[in-house]
Protein 1
Amino acid sequence: MRFSVNKKEIAEAVSNIQRAVSTKTSIPALEGILLTAGEDSLELCAYDLELGMTTVIPAKVSEAGKSVLSAKLFFDIVRRTPDDTITISVDEKNMASIESGASRFSIIGIPAAEFPELPKLSDSTKLELPGNILKSMIRQTVFAVAESDAKPIHQGSLFNIENGALDVVSVDGYRLAKRTEPIAFNENLSFVVPGKALVEVMKLLKDTEDAAEISAGQRHILFKIGSYTVISSLLEGEFLNYKATIPATSKTNVTMRTREAIESVERVSLLITDRLKSPVRCLFGDGEIKLLCTTAMGRASDQLTVEMEGDEVEIGFNNRYLLDALRNAECDEVKVGLSGPLSPMTVRPKEGDSFLFLVLPVRLKNE
């Protein structure tokens, strides 16, 4: 195999692809990137047996072929080569030569036959979404994916299509995040994508309306984004019935400026550390929210003016969950709904219902 490529193009491709390279494995080929030189292109592929990524870049190929090179070493070399053009050749003993300007490297490759094959999708259903919409839907929900493996199905986000609307939902037992968009798709469809795969998809998506293609199979999902494809196993199991957990009404409705609320919670959270945990006590009443936090380090209080209707309520929250909901709202004002000190708080946009966050309260001790 022998080919020449542009340094910038291959460095960017390897930088993105290597995120699907396995870091803990007994199969050496999985720590590498499979290079396949075709007629006038080079395909790069990484796969950790759960998540696979491929991309194609232009190349001047003088001899077609395949080989696997160590991902980390290969990336370090192509990133630091002195010239804009890199020439790579691999002999029949899988010895790879990498040349650029005055720089020369010889590294040991792995036979392509040892690289596992990517899964093939059977009976897949295709749908398309503008890339910027899909990126926003993932960004506003992936933060609430469960980190613990107590319920593996909740380590992913549910994609649920019903009546021409797509809901993306994440839940971790303490909070829920739901994002809704209309979609030109007539069937009902439901599948759960691992959070790890969604984070990689989000990094590849651009803030443009270029279409991202999703192919959902029985056990795998494939995302096509520009010249990249991402394939992942789907999660199996019973996802939470999220529609049943969303409160229908609220006894207290509050509209507040998002930025002001974030800054206020951040200030009182300065006393909270990994070692010194304490809820943020929020007292909603008389058109304002009083925030209070007490730890062994001291006591902090703050307040902000809001528009409010309904009952006064005193409620406590984990500061991180509260901040996650406010920071991911991505709008100037939010509408908060409360139904007492032990019911979940809802956070919605001031206008419309494109997203919904639920945050469970913390039981407060009387001071």
Protein 2
Amino acid sequence: MTKRQLPRGLYAITDSKLLSPEQMVQAVAQAIHGGAVMIQYRDKGEDASRRLWEAQDLYNICRPLGVPLIINDDVALAAQVMADGVHLGRDDGDIAIARAKLGEQAIIGVSCYDQLDLALAAEAAGADYVAFGSFYSSQVKPTAVRASLELLQQAKQRLNIPVVAIGGINADNGAPLVAAGADMLAVINAVFGQADVSAAAAHITKLYE
């Protein structure tokens, strides 16, 4: 079974500190209207029932629009809401286990921070994309390790799967990352922390035009 091709462009990631439950669905719809090609539901809270209905609401927005919904760190939740896939960090479980639970068509992304070796291993284990960062100072993860443009360029030469850049990215600093080969720019604050989410998304989307 062939894996789906992933789009290039803005990968918008939600943050419960920026969006209340009442704002979440509308904000994601606005991000998609502005050009977001993939959405990640990211919530580190302990309220499982709220996380379930939020993720389900986002699925109901994303699916009719053909925009993949990825769940951060939670394979069980991704399976429960029939999301398009899951994103795994360093301590979030094994790619093979996620694949077995979610199926061959699932999109499995893996955080590789500033380490090309992690990305090569993730690709070998069946990841559909890898993410590097933080490329800039990030409000969400201010102490995150920094990745370089050179790493991005090396990754594009060595990997056969899409490469995502994350960390402090906005419309003003994203162009060098796109030029270095980033297939997607993963953005939190510069989309969902803005008054006009649709316009903010559109500004970043233009970097791929």
Protein 3
Amino acid sequence: MKKILLVEDDKSIITNLSEFLTNEGFSVRNAEGQTRALELIGEEEFDLVLLDVSLADGNGFAVCSAIKSEHNTPVIFLTASGDEYSTVTGFELGADDYISKPFRPRELVLRIKNILRLTGGSGTVTKLGDVLVDTVKGTASRNGSDLYLSALEYRLLLVFLNNRGAVLSRNQLLEAIWDIAGEFVNDNTLTVYIKRLREKIEEDPQNPKIIKTVRGLGYKVDL
């Protein structure tokens, strides 16, 4: 049974989400603030941490930083909808994913399972063609060189990684990345970001082997 630490100070979210995750087969511990969260992380081993930014004491950024400096535990941030600063900061601290509030519990469970599958329960390096994605450091490299992905490019790459083998429509991609950008991401802008990402991760961007176009449907990564 996978063990999750929920760090959240909204009592209703704690109660409802803990019950839902327990019914989904997870073991859940919770902490309302930074102090208690760090105590539990020091005392017990967790497979994943769900981490809110605003806490009863301290903040989620400090907790994430402490986790990533001492452990390889995956972290999913729970952020306010449209809070670009929190999302970008979370990725810079090594967060593995984020989900905006309000969220659908089943979508969160899917994200949790994807991250656990991707990291094997502990943050690690995943290979995608000749690209290595370090979900602990939040970096991607190719042939030993850092690709220096922007926050939105990294988020887009994570979406593909977490849905490996599935065809993602342009609308699905837009929904996944729109609230991390500094401005609204429309269909044309998505085309630009996919082009930029391909230029960084593909050996031949004109003939992509990693992010493949499925004509009339969307995009697919199945390496």
